[in-house]
Amino acid sequence: MFDDIDVNSNKLGGTVAKRNEKLVKLMDGIADMKLGNYKDNTIDAFGDAYEYLMGMYASNAGKSGGEYYTPQEVSELLTKLTVVGKTEVKGI
To answer: Are 67 and 58 in contact (CB under 8 A)?
Structure first.
């Protein structure tokens, strides 16, 4: 997913310094988010953000719900992150 990010895009700024400034603001904004300890939360902020971004990607590609897919590598990574530290998983 992040292979397509162009940190040299003029949309971020006309100079390297301006682009870096904008990227630092973005990363600082994410770092300042009060997400708390993930173990103490029942919400899945990153999962929700991923779903939202995938939906936006699909709509920009002229597709609607269910017509886009999650690449296998991403699904595998999300699965591994979900079960870290668990000894058993409830079925759906």
So the answer is: yes
